[in-house]
């Protein structure tokens, strides 16, 4: 498996990303992970919608909490042509509990905990922590990646304005 360094840090300490580096223009790899009720989910059924795929280390951390709440709020403004998926290594039960407590109802949380399929295919699996890097992928209706943002520092929120601009350009 490919290892990449010099891309992200955690509190200033360098980390290693595992998996293939994706580029804008690449087809979005399909993967199978779990929803909050342990049902397998793939992204291929979302074709025809603009997808925001946000990977976060853990919903139970302050920055991931802020990010997911923000994307949930943005989802209500973007409407039906856009689907937001937030993916973490949290167990599905923990994601379901967190979403209920946080009132998250406009986006879908998914768990990559079992096989790290998403993390490896999208190149955002952190070797040292077995968590996902903070990243955002915008995928067009045909399933092509049109925007990628990987946070250089794991503890920083993404640039929401850039993500939303990329989405609006696809609508």
The helix/strand class is alpha+beta
Low-confidence stretches: none
The CATH architecture: 3-Layer(aba) Sandwich
CATH homology-level superfamily: Glutaredoxin
Helicity level = 10-25%
Return the domain count. Answer: 1
**What's the total count of β strands?**
11
Largest sheet: 5 strands, mixed
N-to-C span: 35 Å
Oligomer: single chain
Mean pLDDT across residues: 96
Strand order of the largest sheet: 7-6-5-10-11
CATH topology: Glutaredoxin
Task: Estimate the global geometry from the Cα principal axes.
Answer: globular
> Count of helices?
4
**What is the rounded Rg?**
15 Å
User: What would CATH call the class?
Assistant: Alpha Beta
H-E order: EEEEEHEHEHEEEEH
Share in β-strands:
25-35%
Question: Can you describe this structure?
Answer:
The protein is α+β, with helices and mostly antiparallel strands. It contains four helices and eleven strands, in the order βββββαβαβαββββα. The protein has helices spanning 62-78, 92-102, 117-121, 160-168, and strands at 3-10, 13-18, 33-34, 40-41, 50-55, 82-88, 108-111, 125-126, 131-132, 135-139, 145-150. The longest helix has 17 residues, at 62-78. The model has no long low-confidence stretch (mean pLDDT 96).
Explain the layout of strands and helices.
Blueprint: E1 3-10, E2 13-18, E3 33-34, E4 40-41, E5 50-55, H1 62-78, E6 82-88, H2 92-102, E7 108-111, H3 117-121, E8 125-126, E9 131-132, E10 135-139, E11 145-150, H4 160-168
